[in-house]
Write a structure and sequence with these properties.
By secondary structure, the protein is α/β, with parallel strands linked by helices. 28% of the residues lie in helices and 21% in strands. The protein has nine helices and eleven strands. This is DUF364 domain-containing protein.
Length: 252
């Protein structure tokens, strides 16, 4: 695990160290960090204490003080660390500038699955994380969904140890960075085509060294609206204008 996290933190350190974090917002669904004019997202922790000892102290701290929180096993701290890291890395990422927008009939997360659907016939497909609406979108495609809190039709996340090596395609939520499961998921998917996806994604070309074939993350379209959605507890509404999905293949 340390190799991947060392790599991410070294990359962030090369972009910004002493620059201050403007503000941090822990919404009900998303954690948002602002560095200069850049916004960084992380999927919010599902369970946090009612109060946090560091509340009111994060704004104004140097980036290098907060993005190492990504290593923390405290879920709120890890989300803050990932959001700050994304704000730092993604604001001037040539990788993100090269990515192409996904503008099909589906919206939000489903636009990624819609884009790849024509390539998946006859393939064994695995999805890490439960995505509302995917069962309907892919109703003609058998696939396995692994989820920490399984819903109808899902498999528990522990089943990845036995079943993920069988997959030809694996779609992994980038929120697995914060909960520390990503390194093992990538190990188990080393033989497969891997799509790393979600607003929590740091846009870096070198993900290929860890076996990632495609990056599917977000580009901010309306910063003011994105702040408001996060602050007011929004989830998928983030995709209704504030951000758009973009895709980049890493195999070339």
């Amino acid at each position: 695990m340390n190799g991947l996290y060392d790599w991410l933190l070294e990359h962030a350190s090369g972009v910004a160290r002493e620059e201050p974090v403007e503000r941090v917002c822990l919404g009900l669904s998303w954690t948002l960090a602002e560095v200069g004019d850049s916004l960084g997202f992380a999927f919010g922790p599902r369970q946090v204490p009612r109060t946090l000892s560091w509340a009111g102290t994060l704004g104004g701290q140097a980036c290098e003080r907060l993005y190492p929180w990504l290593r923390s096993w405290n879920t709120a701290e890890s989300a803050v660390g990932l959001a700050v890291l994304n704000a730092v890395i993604n604001r001037a990422s040539p990788c993100l500038r090269q990515a192409q927008p996904l503008r099909g009939e589906a919206s939000g997360n489903l636009s990624v699955f819609e884009h790849f659907r024509p390539r998946l016939d006859g393939q064994k497909v695995a999805v890490i994380g439960h995505y509302p609406g995917l069962a309907q979108l892919w109703q003609d495609l058998p696939y396995r969904c692994f989820e920490r809190e399984p819903q109808d039709g899902d498999l528990p996340d522990t089943a990845v140890e036995q079943l993920l090596p069988e997959a030809d395609w694996v779609f992994i939520t980038a929120s697995s960075l914060a909960n520390k499961t990503l390194p093992r998921l990538l190990e188990l998917s080393s033989h497969a085509q891997v799509v790393l996806m979600g607003p929590s994604l740091p846009w870096i070309y070198d993900w290929r060294r860890f076996g990632v074939n495609y990056l599917a993350g977000v580009r901010v379209q309306d910063a003011r609206a994105a702040r408001q959605v996060v602050a007011e507890g929004g989830g998928t509404r983030l995709f209704a204008g504030p951000v758009e999905y973009a895709l980049l293949g890493l195999d070339s």
